[in-house]
Amino acid sequence: MTPLLEFREVTKEYHGVPAVQDVSLSITEGEVHALLGENGAGKSTLTKMAAGVVPITRGKILLAGEELSFSSPADALRKGIAMVFQETSLVPSLTVAQNLYLGDEKAFNRLRPLYIAAQQFLQSLNFPVDPTANVASLGAAQRQMVEIARAVRKNARIIIFDEPTATLTPEEKQHFFELIERLKERGCSVIFISHALEEALAISDRITILRDGKLVITDETGKFDRDSIISAMVGRDLSGELYGGEDGKRRVRPYGKRVLSVQNVSMGRMVRNTSFAAYAGQVTGIFGLIGSGRTETAKIVSGVIKRNFFHGGVTRLGSKSVRYRTPAPSVRDGIAYVTEDRKVEGIFETMSVAESIEIGKLASPSDKSVILRGSEARDLAEHWTKSLNIRAISSDVPVIELSGGNQQKVVIAKALVQDPQLIIFDEPTRGVDVGAIAEIHAVINRLADQGLAVVMISSYLPEILNMSDRILVARKGRIVEEFSGDEATEENIMYAAVH
Ligand SMILES: Nc1ncnc2c1ncn2[C@@H]1O[C@H](COP(=O)(O)OP(=O)(O)OP(=O)(O)O)[C@@H](O)[C@H]1O
Ligand SMILES: [Mg+2]
User: Fold this and answer.
1) CA 353 to CA 381: how far, in whole Å?
2) What pLDDT shows up at residue 246?
3) What is the per-residue pLDDT for 243?
4) Least C-beta-crowded within 10 Å: which of 132, 236, 264, 352?
5) Residues 209, 325: one domain?
6) Which ligand 1 atom minimizes the distance to the CA of 48?
7) Residue 9 belongs to a domain
8) What DSSP line would sit under 250-309, residue for residue?
9) What is the domain extent for residue 473?
10) How much is the pTM?
11) In the chain, which residues have pLDDT < 50?
């Protein structure tokens, strides 16, 4: 049987360095194929070649036995290959419906039927998105849904999902997995890239693991388990270093002085009269489902959200009452916010790794004035790329050339050089591989041990349970519960988050 999609000794080089090397892989009709590997292993690059996003350096890609050559992603889509990107590719100024029907310019002539059709289509997928909303106004999860819906609508024969579930709630994930089942029944093949190994194990028929651009193994999913996947990914046994590797007991650090106190802060419908505190020398975990107002609260504290939208309440840093309109003064006061949405708030993609880190340094309270000499900037970048294990050919490359997870580490480095007293991590390990998660967690622990007040927002329960000294639960715009010690169980936390 001819495979639907076949990679034959495919290589992709950037600046002469292979990102994907001699990969041969076949995708059969109607299969769900999980593509796994560490940050920078080459997953996005491999699939981008099949989707016409980047050209191949050497080798061939065949669709139903015929060699492909594309001029663009639109061209690939016409041939039946769609890709849902890790970073969104929607047009923010258009509505949901217009994005769905982009390319069908005829459909734009009359808006009403366009909206009705879009509404019905989104409903059929179980996606709660308003077709008339501007994409710019949507949250990450809903954007992802629009992106998925667009690929499905184009009747693609192969859909590549690059980390589709990272921004979805458990319920939305369930719908998404059902959708994949339906696509499969229609004979559509799915390539599923994810760092959520349990999900890959649950929904795929076969698994391929890449390491350093090379294919390590392809086999039926039933032949793998979590540990065997991880050791194939990293080339060594990591299980002791990850979640559950310890004795399951959380250590609780003592309270230091109160660094942050938020009292009755409100903002529109997103944040309702919320109050909490964070202490020096502790990790304060904030758990909640997407939409529970955690991110908005963090953005108010750190001045990322403009004060115009800020309706009330008091925020204190130490004993000083603060109200920031922009991030700059909050950074000067020693607050660092590490965003989950690096594309929008974290980083300028065209800047190099070194420049991005230097920007953080310039913003810090201690180094207001001096611009670093070239060599100093390079030393600084060198230090942080090493200590966070950021994988880049050199620190002069633009951030956009790094893999998704390594971009996230640059965002963290930029915050750390600001030398903060309070650091807020918003989903610090989203899109980050298992090895790098362990590294980032070690960094977070070190910061708390050094006496910083650390706030960690996460939707990932094992992360919250393992890392936090105290756990706050957010629901519908408020902190509703606080747990520590023996009370901090999975059941208690989940119950508080949804009820
Ligand atoms: N446009 C680019 N220019 C130069 N190098 C690039 C570019 N895009 C990717 N690379 C490099 O290719 C390698 C593979 O990156 P890729 O994005 O495919 O990794 P990935 O497996 O998708 O990782 P992640 O899980 O972090 O998303 C990395 O070393 C990355 O730095
Ligand atoms: Mg990627």
Assistant:
1) 7
2) 47
3) 45
4) 236
5) no
6) 18
7) yes
8) PP-PPP--EEEEEEEEEETTTEEEEEEEEETTEEEEEE--TTSSHHHHHHHHTT-S-GGG
9) 258-498
10) 0.71
11) 239-248
